[in-house]
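Input chain follows. Return structure tokens only.
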Amino acid sequence: MELLAYPFMLRALAGALIIGLTAPALGIYLVQRRLSLIGDGIGHVALTGVGVGLLTNNSPVLTAVVVATIGAVGVELIRERGRTSGDLALALLFYGGIAGGVVLVGLSDDKGNSNLMQYLFGSLITTSPQDIMVIGGLAAAVLVAMLLLRPALFALCNDEEYARVSGLPVRTLNILLAVTTAVTVTIAMRTVGLLLVSALMVVPVAAAQQVTRGFRTTMAAAMLIGLGSAAAGILVSAEADTAPGATTVLMALAAFLGTTIGGMVRRGLRRHSRPPVTAEPPDVVIKMLGQS
């Protein structure tokens, strides 16, 4: 725990808590819409943006935000036209993004190859105060959008045709989800890395679904689980000297396992506490039918 006395560890904890709170708030809409893997796809596109930044000696985070946003909006427009299904569009996003990233990083200098690992798996201990300000500002914007537009986004993710008939701006909401997903992926690069960012969007939501009912309750529980997983991940990684991003994901998976077991136990106790249903003997039923 003495490590928390150092400023870089406090910045790492702050960054992890911000992402742990924001990612599930967005992820619940993606899970509801059966797009749980879109974070991985956009992460691969963001890898191309990182390659562009390393090749041109610009900020990899800035170029990743721009490229990931363009890719996310492009996939959404392709899906909307109906000529390419959602899973095929994600596949194109996966392959094109990682191929472009590998090529561009290969064209950069040797230092770029070593820096790439920070973006693939996260590097919280190198987070600067400026990084925390950027992460906090963008995360706040995502949180405000997800909370204020919850009724409209819930209707969109449940039934897009119903949302369109109801007069909701379906295309605008779809693009909003795509853009906020791209932003969340890129600001989480420094926390868990591009290869693990989707886990913080999905796993806390899956854990909350085991013990809650109702969209609002599940959303609140998922955000709390994400927050707790991030805090536990940083503390455990500081004590055990493990990778903070991977440890955070493992904490989220442990929460999912715990809620799954807890949900099974609760359902079992509820089943056993119900009074047994007794049926009348067949002869009594027949006799009653005959009298009627």
